[in-house]
Amino acid sequence: MKLSVIFVGELHDGGFNQCALAGVKALPGPDVDVVRGVPYDAAAMTQALRGAALHSDGIVFVGGQGNQVVPEVAEAFADRTFAVVQGNVTGANLASYDVLQEQSAFLAGVLAVRISRTGTVGHLSGHRVLPGLKGRAAFASGVRYADQSVRLVTGFCGTQDDSAVTEAWARALVAKGADPIFTMLNAARRGATRACRETGARQIGNAADWCRIDPEVFVASAMARIDLGVVRAVSDIESGLSPGKIVHLGIREDAVALSMGREVPEPVRQEIAGLATDIAEGRMTVEITYDGPEFEVAA
Q: Are both 2-100+226-249 and 101-224+255-280 of the same fold?
């Protein structure tokens, strides 16, 4: 069986793509073609998908960007099997595998309030795709759950990979008093991290365990095992299974968790652990919509 896995943007990005790549590397059997560096552009993404479908039995698209382009291509190639990791689209030959980043993002919102030194917390993401929107909404929900008087400054800067842009946005958030800042970024996290390091602001990362990677800046990280989504998608394709539904992977499946640095007090750790259990066992529902104010950096 021949498979193609498609990535938008930089592959070794320290974020979702790199985590998904680890899932590809963990695959024991199939012949996998990694399609990397696809621009975040509908025509380019469609072209990549069609090219992969011409020579592959199964195509896995990594990222919520696939929601807008994969269904049409899947319909055109009915004899192929398609999957979107971090997607919410389905079809006769199309399934989605959604690692529930929003669950760990909610926990990050609670933590941000508990450790904030300013009474203001920040959020910064790049593309306005569904996983990022759900993650922001969940973070905001966690902030409200912990303390409705805490101010949230949140925005989407329009890029996952341009560090100059994210550095400017992170500095603007710090100027608004945000500490810590929750970043949902890929390669462009480097710019936000540089801004935090130089201003002394603390950061909460996502996808990978940033507390382990850079403990000087990161106080926590809303981990999301996108690699498990890739492995599950490929396993289903190999088995001839296209469930035609969205497969959810969350805290219960050990696919998401909040990593915390050494400075987080034990009572806060215990609170986070209790909330994680409540989410996993269905006693708490995480909000995935947000209609609050948006922050913009002046051009």
A: yes
DSSP annotation of 256 reads E
**CATH classification for the domain delimited by 2-100+226-249, as one of 3.40.50.2300, 2.60.40.350, 3.50.50.60, 1.10.1040.10:** 3.40.50.2300
Average pLDDT, the chain: 95
Cis omega (within 30 of 0) on the bond before 215?
no
pLDDT in the model for residue 27: 84
CATH superfamily, domain 101-224+255-280, is Response regulator (3.40.50.2300)
What single string gives the DSSP state of each residue in 269-293? HHHHHHHHHHHHTTSS-------S-
Q: Please list, in sequence order, all residues whose beta carbon lies within 8 angstroms of the beta carbon of residue 251, skipping any fewer than 6 positions away.
A: 100, 103, 104, 257, 276, 279, 280
Q: Which of 85, 20, 98 is nearest to 59 (CA)?
A: 85
The average pLDDT across 3-14 equals: 89
Q: Is 98 helix (H, G, I), strand (E, B) or coil?
A: strand
For the stretch 189-223, pLDDT in tens is 999 999 999 999 999 999 999 999 999 999 999 99
81-85 and 94-99 as β-strands: parallel, antiparallel, unpaired?
Answer: parallel
pTM of the shown model: 0.90
SS3 47: helix
The CA distances from residue 150 to 82, 266, 273, in Å, are 43, 22, 22
Task: Report d(CA 28, CA 179) in Å as an integer.
Answer: 43
Phi, psi of 223 (to 5 degrees): -70, 145
Are the beta carbons of 258 and 268 closer than 8 angstroms? Answer: no
What value does the mean pLDDT take over residues 43-49?
Answer: 97
Q: Are the C-beta atoms of residues 99 and 226 closer than 8 Å to each other?
A: yes
Alpha-carbon span 126 to 265, nearest angstrom: 31
Question: To the nearest whole percent, how much of the chain has pLDDT over 70?
Answer: 99
Domain borders along the chain are 2-100+226-249, 101-224+255-280
